[in-house]
Design brief:
The structure holds two protein chains of two kinds. Chain A has five helices and 16 strands. Chain A has two domains: about 10-125, 3-Layer(aba) Sandwich (Glutaredoxin), CATH 3.40.30; about 135-275, HemS/ChuS/ChuX like domains (Heme iron utilization protein-like fold, 3-Layer(aba) Sandwich), CATH 3.40.1570. Chain A has helices at about 5-10, 35-50, 110-115, 135-145, 255-270; strands spanning about 15-20, 30, 35, 55-60, 70-75, 80-85, 90-95, 95-105, 160-165, 170-180, 195-200, 205-210, 215-220, 225-235, 240-245, 270-275. Chain B has three helices and four strands. Chain B has helices spanning about 15-20, 50, 70-80; strands at about 5, 25, 35, 55-60. Classes of the chains: A alpha+beta, B alpha+beta. The interface of A and B includes residues 1 and 10 of A.
Chain lengths: ~280, ~80
Protein backbone atom coordinates (compact mmCIF):
# COMPACT_ATOMS: atom_id res chain seq x y z
CA UNK A 1 0.00 0.00 0.00
CA UNK A 2 1.43 3.38 -0.95
CA UNK A 3 1.62 6.43 1.29
CA UNK A 4 -0.86 8.20 -0.93
CA UNK A 5 -3.52 5.55 -0.52
CA UNK A 6 -6.65 7.23 0.85
CA UNK A 7 -7.12 4.48 3.43
CA UNK A 8 -3.69 5.15 4.82
CA UNK A 9 -4.00 8.94 4.72
CA UNK A 10 -7.26 8.75 6.73
CA UNK A 11 -5.50 6.97 9.56
CA UNK A 12 -6.23 8.80 12.82
CA UNK A 13 -3.41 9.99 15.04
CA UNK A 14 -5.22 8.88 18.16
CA UNK A 15 -7.69 6.10 18.88
CA UNK A 16 -9.91 6.39 21.92
CA UNK A 17 -11.68 3.21 22.98
CA UNK A 18 -14.42 3.81 25.54
CA UNK A 19 -15.70 0.88 27.57
CA UNK A 20 -19.49 0.91 27.54
CA UNK A 21 -19.99 -2.56 28.95
CA UNK A 22 -23.52 -2.76 30.30
CA UNK A 23 -22.42 -4.88 33.26
CA UNK A 24 -19.44 -2.72 34.15
CA UNK A 25 -18.52 0.79 33.10
CA UNK A 26 -21.99 1.39 31.68
CA UNK A 27 -23.42 1.44 35.19
CA UNK A 28 -20.76 3.51 36.96
CA UNK A 29 -20.21 7.22 37.36
CA UNK A 30 -17.07 9.29 37.72
CA UNK A 31 -17.47 12.93 38.76
CA UNK A 32 -21.03 13.00 37.48
CA UNK A 33 -20.49 11.15 34.18
CA UNK A 34 -21.22 7.56 33.25
CA UNK A 35 -19.71 5.72 30.29
CA UNK A 36 -22.31 6.98 27.82
CA UNK A 37 -21.70 10.57 28.91
CA UNK A 38 -17.94 10.10 28.65
CA UNK A 39 -18.40 8.66 25.16
CA UNK A 40 -20.61 11.56 24.07
CA UNK A 41 -18.28 14.19 25.51
CA UNK A 42 -15.28 12.47 23.94
CA UNK A 43 -16.95 12.34 20.53
CA UNK A 44 -17.80 16.03 20.82
CA UNK A 45 -14.24 16.87 21.82
CA UNK A 46 -12.86 14.87 18.89
CA UNK A 47 -15.19 16.71 16.52
CA UNK A 48 -14.00 20.09 17.83
CA UNK A 49 -10.44 19.03 17.06
CA UNK A 50 -11.30 18.37 13.45
CA UNK A 51 -12.84 14.92 13.58
CA UNK A 52 -10.33 13.04 11.46
CA UNK A 53 -7.39 13.14 13.81
CA UNK A 54 -9.14 11.27 16.58
CA UNK A 55 -11.23 8.13 16.22
CA UNK A 56 -13.56 7.39 19.12
CA UNK A 57 -15.03 3.89 19.33
CA UNK A 58 -16.59 1.66 21.96
CA UNK A 59 -15.70 -1.69 23.43
CA UNK A 60 -17.00 -4.21 25.91
CA UNK A 61 -15.24 -4.86 29.20
CA UNK A 62 -11.63 -5.45 28.35
CA UNK A 63 -10.14 -5.40 31.79
CA UNK A 64 -12.43 -7.12 34.23
CA UNK A 65 -11.84 -4.05 36.39
CA UNK A 66 -13.89 -2.01 38.82
CA UNK A 67 -12.27 1.31 37.97
CA UNK A 68 -14.74 2.51 35.35
CA UNK A 69 -15.91 4.45 33.58
CA UNK A 70 -12.69 3.99 31.66
CA UNK A 71 -11.16 4.43 28.24
CA UNK A 72 -7.91 3.68 26.44
CA UNK A 73 -6.08 6.29 24.42
CA UNK A 74 -3.77 4.89 21.76
CA UNK A 75 -1.15 7.10 20.15
CA UNK A 76 -0.96 5.52 16.74
CA UNK A 77 2.01 7.68 15.82
CA UNK A 78 4.13 6.28 18.62
CA UNK A 79 2.39 3.06 19.65
CA UNK A 80 2.01 4.25 23.25
CA UNK A 81 -1.17 3.66 25.24
CA UNK A 82 -2.67 5.46 28.20
CA UNK A 83 -5.46 4.21 30.41
CA UNK A 84 -8.00 6.56 31.99
CA UNK A 85 -10.46 5.60 34.70
CA UNK A 86 -12.04 6.60 37.95
CA UNK A 87 -8.82 6.40 39.93
CA UNK A 88 -5.36 7.87 39.66
CA UNK A 89 -2.30 5.68 40.01
CA UNK A 90 -1.41 2.02 39.92
CA UNK A 91 -4.02 -0.72 40.12
CA UNK A 92 -4.38 -4.41 39.35
CA UNK A 93 -6.84 -5.50 36.71
CA UNK A 94 -7.65 -9.09 35.87
CA UNK A 95 -6.52 -9.18 32.27
CA UNK A 96 -3.59 -6.82 32.31
CA UNK A 97 -1.95 -7.19 35.70
CA UNK A 98 -0.52 -3.98 37.17
CA UNK A 99 -1.51 -0.92 35.16
CA UNK A 100 -1.22 2.82 35.57
CA UNK A 101 -4.46 4.78 35.53
CA UNK A 102 -4.87 8.49 34.93
CA UNK A 103 -8.09 9.86 36.42
CA UNK A 104 -10.60 11.05 33.82
CA UNK A 105 -10.49 14.85 33.99
CA UNK A 106 -13.49 17.09 33.36
CA UNK A 107 -11.92 18.50 30.18
CA UNK A 108 -11.75 15.68 27.63
CA UNK A 109 -10.53 17.96 24.86
CA UNK A 110 -7.42 18.50 26.93
CA UNK A 111 -7.03 14.72 27.15
CA UNK A 112 -6.95 14.53 23.38
CA UNK A 113 -4.51 17.44 23.09
CA UNK A 114 -2.24 15.59 25.51
CA UNK A 115 -1.94 12.82 22.92
CA UNK A 116 -1.92 14.58 19.55
CA UNK A 117 1.48 14.88 17.93
CA UNK A 118 2.24 18.57 18.28
CA UNK A 119 0.86 18.95 21.82
CA UNK A 120 1.63 15.53 23.28
CA UNK A 121 2.96 15.21 26.79
CA UNK A 122 5.06 12.25 27.94
CA UNK A 123 2.83 9.31 28.85
CA UNK A 124 4.39 8.94 32.29
CA UNK A 125 3.46 12.53 33.15
CA UNK A 126 -0.27 11.86 32.84
CA UNK A 127 -0.66 10.12 36.16
CA UNK A 128 -0.39 13.07 38.54
CA UNK A 129 -2.03 13.40 41.93
CA UNK A 130 -5.74 12.71 42.26
CA UNK A 131 -8.01 15.71 41.76
CA UNK A 132 -9.98 16.64 44.89
CA UNK A 133 -13.08 14.53 45.49
CA UNK A 134 -16.38 16.09 44.54
CA UNK A 135 -17.68 16.75 48.06
CA UNK A 136 -20.72 18.68 46.83
CA UNK A 137 -21.89 15.58 45.01
CA UNK A 138 -21.31 13.41 48.07
CA UNK A 139 -23.31 15.84 50.25
CA UNK A 140 -26.12 15.75 47.70
CA UNK A 141 -26.19 11.95 47.64
CA UNK A 142 -26.15 11.65 51.43
CA UNK A 143 -28.88 14.29 51.72
CA UNK A 144 -31.02 12.38 49.24
CA UNK A 145 -30.46 9.22 51.31
CA UNK A 146 -31.46 11.06 54.45
CA UNK A 147 -34.44 13.11 53.31
CA UNK A 148 -35.56 11.27 50.21
CA UNK A 149 -35.90 12.90 46.83
CA UNK A 150 -38.55 13.64 44.25
CA UNK A 151 -41.94 12.63 45.56
CA UNK A 152 -40.50 10.34 48.23
CA UNK A 153 -42.17 10.78 51.58
CA UNK A 154 -39.52 8.93 53.58
CA UNK A 155 -35.75 8.78 53.67
CA UNK A 156 -33.76 5.60 54.06
CA UNK A 157 -34.04 6.07 57.83
CA UNK A 158 -33.19 3.07 60.03
CA UNK A 159 -29.69 1.77 59.40
CA UNK A 160 -26.61 0.21 60.91
CA UNK A 161 -23.28 1.91 60.35
CA UNK A 162 -20.39 -0.50 60.08
CA UNK A 163 -16.76 0.52 60.36
CA UNK A 164 -14.18 -2.17 59.90
CA UNK A 165 -10.42 -2.42 60.08
CA UNK A 166 -8.12 -5.45 60.28
CA UNK A 167 -8.34 -5.42 64.08
CA UNK A 168 -11.96 -4.54 64.79
CA UNK A 169 -15.46 -4.21 63.44
CA UNK A 170 -17.98 -1.80 64.96
CA UNK A 171 -21.70 -1.79 64.14
CA UNK A 172 -23.76 1.15 65.33
CA UNK A 173 -27.54 1.48 64.92
CA UNK A 174 -28.42 4.91 63.57
CA UNK A 175 -31.15 6.78 61.74
CA UNK A 176 -30.21 8.51 58.50
CA UNK A 177 -32.88 11.13 59.08
CA UNK A 178 -30.56 12.59 61.71
CA UNK A 179 -27.84 13.45 59.21
CA UNK A 180 -26.31 16.90 59.38
CA UNK A 181 -23.19 18.53 57.99
CA UNK A 182 -20.77 20.32 60.30
CA UNK A 183 -17.49 22.17 60.00
CA UNK A 184 -14.25 21.28 61.74
CA UNK A 185 -15.40 22.91 64.99
CA UNK A 186 -18.58 20.83 65.07
CA UNK A 187 -20.89 23.73 64.19
CA UNK A 188 -23.76 22.99 61.80
CA UNK A 189 -22.76 24.06 58.29
CA UNK A 190 -24.59 22.91 55.12
CA UNK A 191 -21.25 23.19 53.31
CA UNK A 192 -19.32 21.45 56.08
CA UNK A 193 -16.72 18.83 55.37
CA UNK A 194 -18.01 16.40 57.99
CA UNK A 195 -21.22 14.35 57.88
CA UNK A 196 -22.52 13.73 61.38
CA UNK A 197 -25.08 11.08 62.20
CA UNK A 198 -26.76 10.90 65.59
CA UNK A 199 -26.74 7.23 66.52
CA UNK A 200 -29.19 5.38 68.71
CA UNK A 201 -28.37 6.03 72.36
CA UNK A 202 -27.16 9.60 71.87
CA UNK A 203 -23.90 8.63 70.17
CA UNK A 204 -22.43 10.25 67.06
CA UNK A 205 -20.76 8.92 63.93
CA UNK A 206 -18.63 11.39 61.99
CA UNK A 207 -17.52 10.95 58.40
CA UNK A 208 -14.77 13.09 56.83
CA UNK A 209 -16.23 13.72 53.39
CA UNK A 210 -12.96 14.77 51.71
CA UNK A 211 -11.57 11.28 52.39
CA UNK A 212 -14.32 9.57 50.41
CA UNK A 213 -13.63 8.85 46.75
CA UNK A 214 -16.34 6.38 45.82
CA UNK A 215 -19.82 5.46 46.93
CA UNK A 216 -21.63 2.28 45.89
CA UNK A 217 -25.24 1.27 46.32
CA UNK A 218 -25.61 -2.48 46.77
CA UNK A 219 -28.92 -4.31 46.63
CA UNK A 220 -28.58 -8.05 47.12
CA UNK A 221 -30.78 -11.00 47.92
CA UNK A 222 -29.69 -12.93 50.98
CA UNK A 223 -29.72 -16.73 51.15
CA UNK A 224 -32.94 -16.57 53.15
CA UNK A 225 -34.55 -14.71 50.27
CA UNK A 226 -34.69 -11.37 52.05
CA UNK A 227 -33.30 -8.30 50.30
CA UNK A 228 -30.24 -6.49 51.66
CA UNK A 229 -29.59 -2.82 51.00
CA UNK A 230 -26.25 -1.22 51.78
CA UNK A 231 -24.15 1.79 50.87
CA UNK A 232 -20.40 1.38 50.75
CA UNK A 233 -18.06 4.34 50.98
CA UNK A 234 -14.47 3.98 49.86
CA UNK A 235 -11.32 6.07 50.18
CA UNK A 236 -8.70 7.11 47.59
CA UNK A 237 -7.33 3.56 47.46
CA UNK A 238 -10.88 2.27 46.98
CA UNK A 239 -10.68 0.56 50.36
CA UNK A 240 -14.07 0.39 52.07
CA UNK A 241 -14.01 2.66 55.12
CA UNK A 242 -17.69 3.08 56.02
CA UNK A 243 -20.76 1.00 55.31
CA UNK A 244 -24.41 1.78 55.88
CA UNK A 245 -26.77 -1.21 56.02
CA UNK A 246 -30.49 -0.55 56.05
CA UNK A 247 -32.49 -2.11 58.86
CA UNK A 248 -36.12 -3.10 58.55
CA UNK A 249 -38.30 -0.16 59.46
CA UNK A 250 -40.30 -0.21 62.65
CA UNK A 251 -43.14 1.00 60.46
CA UNK A 252 -43.59 -1.84 57.91
CA UNK A 253 -45.48 0.46 55.56
CA UNK A 254 -42.26 2.41 55.03
CA UNK A 255 -40.26 -0.54 53.72
CA UNK A 256 -41.64 -0.54 50.15
CA UNK A 257 -41.12 3.24 50.04
CA UNK A 258 -37.52 2.85 51.22
CA UNK A 259 -36.96 0.15 48.57
CA UNK A 260 -38.27 2.52 45.92
CA UNK A 261 -36.07 5.35 47.17
CA UNK A 262 -33.02 3.08 47.10
CA UNK A 263 -33.79 2.10 43.50
CA UNK A 264 -34.39 5.77 42.61
CA UNK A 265 -30.99 6.65 44.07
CA UNK A 266 -29.37 4.01 41.84
CA UNK A 267 -31.33 5.31 38.88
CA UNK A 268 -30.21 8.87 39.56
CA UNK A 269 -26.58 8.34 40.52
CA UNK A 270 -25.69 4.86 39.24
CA UNK A 271 -24.71 1.85 41.36
CA UNK A 272 -21.20 3.13 41.79
CA UNK A 273 -20.24 6.80 41.89
CA UNK A 274 -16.65 7.96 41.86
CA UNK A 275 -16.41 11.45 43.26
CA UNK B 1 -16.58 -16.82 20.45
CA UNK B 2 -13.81 -14.77 18.93
CA UNK B 3 -13.38 -12.10 16.29
CA UNK B 4 -12.23 -13.03 12.80
CA UNK B 5 -10.14 -10.97 10.38
CA UNK B 6 -11.19 -11.43 6.77
CA UNK B 7 -10.16 -10.72 3.17
CA UNK B 8 -10.23 -6.90 3.17
CA UNK B 9 -7.21 -6.97 5.49
CA UNK B 10 -5.12 -8.80 2.87
CA UNK B 11 -2.45 -6.47 1.60
CA UNK B 12 -3.65 -3.61 3.81
CA UNK B 13 -2.38 -4.54 7.29
CA UNK B 14 -3.27 -1.12 8.67
CA UNK B 15 -2.72 -2.47 12.22
CA UNK B 16 -5.30 -0.22 13.87
CA UNK B 17 -6.71 -3.37 15.45
CA UNK B 18 -3.31 -4.28 16.83
CA UNK B 19 -2.91 -0.83 18.35
CA UNK B 20 -6.23 -0.88 20.21
CA UNK B 21 -6.33 -4.54 21.23
CA UNK B 22 -6.12 -4.49 25.03
CA UNK B 23 -4.72 -7.99 25.34
CA UNK B 24 -2.35 -7.99 22.36
CA UNK B 25 -3.93 -11.04 20.75
CA UNK B 26 -3.55 -9.99 17.07
CA UNK B 27 -0.58 -11.43 15.25
CA UNK B 28 1.22 -11.39 11.95
CA UNK B 29 4.68 -11.84 10.51
CA UNK B 30 6.42 -10.06 7.67
CA UNK B 31 5.63 -13.07 5.51
CA UNK B 32 1.90 -12.96 6.24
CA UNK B 33 -0.30 -10.76 4.10
CA UNK B 34 -2.86 -10.10 6.82
CA UNK B 35 -3.39 -10.09 10.58
CA UNK B 36 -4.89 -12.92 12.64
CA UNK B 37 -6.74 -12.93 15.97
CA UNK B 38 -5.84 -15.68 18.41
CA UNK B 39 -9.15 -17.30 19.35
CA UNK B 40 -7.76 -18.49 22.66
CA UNK B 41 -6.58 -15.05 23.71
CA UNK B 42 -9.38 -12.89 22.30
CA UNK B 43 -11.67 -11.61 25.07
CA UNK B 44 -14.51 -10.53 22.75
CA UNK B 45 -14.31 -6.89 23.72
CA UNK B 46 -14.98 -5.75 20.14
CA UNK B 47 -12.46 -2.92 20.37
CA UNK B 48 -10.85 -4.02 17.09
CA UNK B 49 -14.01 -4.16 15.00
CA UNK B 50 -14.92 -0.48 14.63
CA UNK B 51 -11.36 0.80 14.18
CA UNK B 52 -10.60 -1.34 11.12
CA UNK B 53 -10.44 1.08 8.18
CA UNK B 54 -11.44 -1.61 5.68
CA UNK B 55 -14.18 -3.36 7.71
CA UNK B 56 -12.33 -6.65 7.76
CA UNK B 57 -13.16 -7.72 11.31
CA UNK B 58 -16.33 -9.47 12.37
CA UNK B 59 -17.61 -11.41 15.34
CA UNK B 60 -17.26 -15.08 14.48
CA UNK B 61 -20.99 -15.65 14.20
CA UNK B 62 -21.41 -12.54 12.07
CA UNK B 63 -18.79 -13.22 9.39
CA UNK B 64 -20.45 -12.60 6.00
CA UNK B 65 -20.91 -15.70 3.87
CA UNK B 66 -18.38 -14.59 1.29
CA UNK B 67 -15.67 -14.49 4.00
CA UNK B 68 -16.60 -17.69 5.85
CA UNK B 69 -13.37 -19.37 4.72
CA UNK B 70 -11.47 -16.93 6.89
CA UNK B 71 -12.89 -18.47 10.07
CA UNK B 72 -10.93 -21.62 9.33
CA UNK B 73 -7.94 -19.63 8.09
CA UNK B 74 -7.79 -17.73 11.41
CA UNK B 75 -8.13 -20.87 13.52
CA UNK B 76 -5.61 -22.78 11.40
CA UNK B 77 -3.06 -20.01 11.78
CA UNK B 78 -2.82 -20.72 15.49
CA UNK B 79 -2.97 -24.50 15.27
CA UNK B 80 0.27 -24.76 13.35
Amino acid sequence: MSASDPQRSARPEVNVVVCTDEYGCGRWYHRGRNAEAVLGDMQAAAKRLGGERVQVTTAGCILGCTYGPRFDVVRRWSGEKALYGSIQGEATVTRRGRVQFAAIPDDLEQVLCDHLTETAVPIDRLAGPNPPANIDLLRRILSDCSKGMGDATVGLDEAVIMVHNPAATVSIPATLANLQFVDGSGSADPAGDIALLATDGDGQAALQLSRIRQIEFLCRQLRNGMPSYSIWLRDDDLATVYRIYLRRSENPANNPLRHRLFMDLIEKYGEKVTL
Amino acid sequence: MTYIITEPCVGVKDAACVDVCPVDCIYTTDDDDMYFISPDECIDCAACEPVCPVTAIFAEEAVPGMYEDYIKINYDYFSK
